[in-house]
Amino acid sequence: MIREVKGDIFKSNADIITCTVNQVGPMGAGLALEFANRHPDFYYHYRKLIRQNRWKQNQLFIYQPTDAPYKVLAFPTKKHWKQDSDL
Asked: Closest Cα to residue 17, out of 59, 69, 56?
């Protein structure tokens, strides 16, 4: 079941929260930047997958930050950060 909830995603009691990302590496704005700032370990592993060319297009990446009770789902919405997001 999916339900819409308003508020701070980082204060959610959800088991998994979603970070929309590109598959090039930069997390330079919006929610992705906030994830990178709050969870540098997540950002490190995300970038490592990209650098090692181990992230296939349309593949999801789930990470358990060491400093959070939730998992992070990296959900690619575009290949390159310059592109518009896909639905």
From this structure: 69
* Contact call for residues 47 and 25 (beta carbons, < 8 A): yes
- First-to-last alpha carbon distance for the chain, in angstroms, is 19
Spatial separation of the C-alpha atoms in residues 82 and 47, rounded to whole Å:
17
Positive or negative CA dihedral for 9, 85, 27, 48? Answer: positive
> Which string of b and e fits 28-50 if b means at least 16 CB within 10 Å?
eeeebeebbeebeebbebbeebb
What DSSP character marks residue 82? T
Q: What Rg value do the Cα atoms of the chain yield, rounded?
A: 13
The pLDDT of residue 3 is: 78
For the full predicted model, state whether its pTM sits above 0.90: no
The residues that are catalytic are: 78
Instruction: Report how far residue 43's alpha carbon sits from residue 56's, in angstroms, rounded to the nearest whole number.
Output: 17
